[in-house]
Specification:
single chain, alpha/beta, 13% strand, 3-stranded antiparallel beta sheet, globular, 16 helices
Length: 399
């Protein structure tokens, strides 16, 4: 989509179609979209997509963290021409938004990651492709065409398999590596456990492993002949809790691409990330799927931004639902936000078209939130755009 046409104009398209009696095919309120998506999904996939760790306290904390801040709009400012554009790690962004890496997207729709990639390309929003995908790194890249994309790595036990994943991503045109730090072991997820449902054990979501030459070379027989052995080897490879900071040197040996560490929630870890030479940190608690009772990701964002002191890029995910949410995270210092579950709900109810609708709605909401808060460019937005809420009362703008 062109920057010449404001994202906010999407609402006028909808209203004009309404004059002809045409209403949107799917809800634009994310809560209703979530409801409709879950009604369509079978119990196992629904629990996997919706579920969080333990009692779901971290998922609640993510949403509550957004309530700690309120936008404080400024008036009588010229916002007739606006720009959301930003360049991040060499990737041009028409808006400071990417699609977060979400695995096993075929649980939501048969075309899974391929539909997501086509939708992202149509709207022009870069995405981060997950290792835990139902389609290969290469297939997802092909579906995306010329759209910029990043690759999210789950670091396996075999270093040469990690190297193979990264090299495949480079060859397929991915322009950054996002290393997830918080999933060396699967968190305690009651919804999945209650359903006895882990899609990888059925050969869904581990396609990148099953078709990787290093992975296949370690098997007694090809997966096509002995899938049970292949799944067992996947399970051994996936859980790798021995990785430490010193192992980042190996990842740097594998690639010259920018490296982003996903899952940073503390200032001390943020400083360590900078000391180890990474180009970005992603403030995230995996959408509440790993550690129950953890800090809300937005609550952790300001101290991470302060700790890195501009020495690397800071990104944000976990709990983002609206344009106002994104604007709050950007005001607190995130250079970009990653949108997660909402686009999967769109995928579930409408395939690629559903994802396009979610993205256009989200970008329109962000554009309007920025403009109505009194800002013509995203680079103007800072902590002064917000007031903190303490027990329901404003405590003024953050320092």
């Amino acid at each position: 989509m062109s920057e010449q046409v404001p994202y906010a104009n999407y609402q006028y398209e909808i209203y004009l179609r309404g004059l002809g009696g045409q209403r949107p095919a799917r809800p634009l309120d994310w809560r209703a979209l979530e409801r409709d998506a879950y009604h369509l999904l079978a119990e196992g996939p629904r629990g996997y997509i919706a579920g969080g760790a333990g009692l779901g306290e971290t998922m609640r904390a993510n949403r509550e963290a957004f309530d700690h801040w309120r936008l404080a709009p400024r008036m009588l400012r010229d916002v007739s021409e606006r720009s959301l554009a930003r360049t991040l790690l060499g990737t041009p962004l028409p808006a400071p938004v990417l699609l977060a890496p979400i695995g096993v997207q075929t649980l939501a729709h048969p075309e899974g990651e391929l539909a997501m990639a086509r939708a992202a390309a149509e709207v022009g929003v870069p995405f981060v492709a997950s290792t835990a995908a139902a389609h290969t790194i290469e297939q997802i890249a092909q579906a995306a065409g010329e759209l910029p994309r990043w690759y999210q790595l789950y670091w396996p036990r075999d270093r040469e398999l990690a190297r193979s994943f990264v090299q495949r991503a480079e060859l397929a045109g991915y322009s950054a590596i996002v290393l997830t730090l918080d999933t060396w072991l699967l968190g305690w997820r009651p919804a999945d456990l209650t359903n006895g449902f882990l899609p990888f054990l059925w050969g869904e979501g581990n396609r990148n492993y099953l078709e990787d030459p290093v992975f296949r070379a370690a098997l007694p027989a090809p997966p096509e002949e002995n899938m049970q052995a292949a799944i067992g080897h996947w399970a051994w490879q996936f859980a790798n809790p021995a990785v430490t900071w010193k192992d980042l040197a190996f990842l740097r040996e594998c690639t010259d691409l920018p490296i982003v560490l996903k899952g940073i929630l503390r200032a001390d870890d943020a400083r360590l990330a900078v000391e180890h030479g990474v180009q970005g940190v992603l403030v995230s608690n995996h959408g509440g799927r790993q550690v129950d009772g953890a800090v809300g990701a937005l609550d952790a964002l300001p101290e991470v931004v302060a700790a890195v002191e501009g020495r690397c890029e800071v990104l944000f995910d976990s709990g983002v639902r609206s344009g106002a949410d994104a604007l709050k995270a950007l005001a607190l210092g995130a250079r970009a936000v990653l949108l997660g579950r909402p686009y999967i709900w769109g995928l579930a109810v409408g395939g690629a078209t559903g994802v396009v609708e979610v993205l256009r709605s989200f970008l329109a909401d962000l554009d309007l939130a920025m403009a109505l808060s009194g800002y013509a460019a995203i680079d103007e937005v800072g902590p002064g755009a917000l007031v903190a809420q303490t027990y329901g009362h404003s405590s003024g703008s953050p320092a």
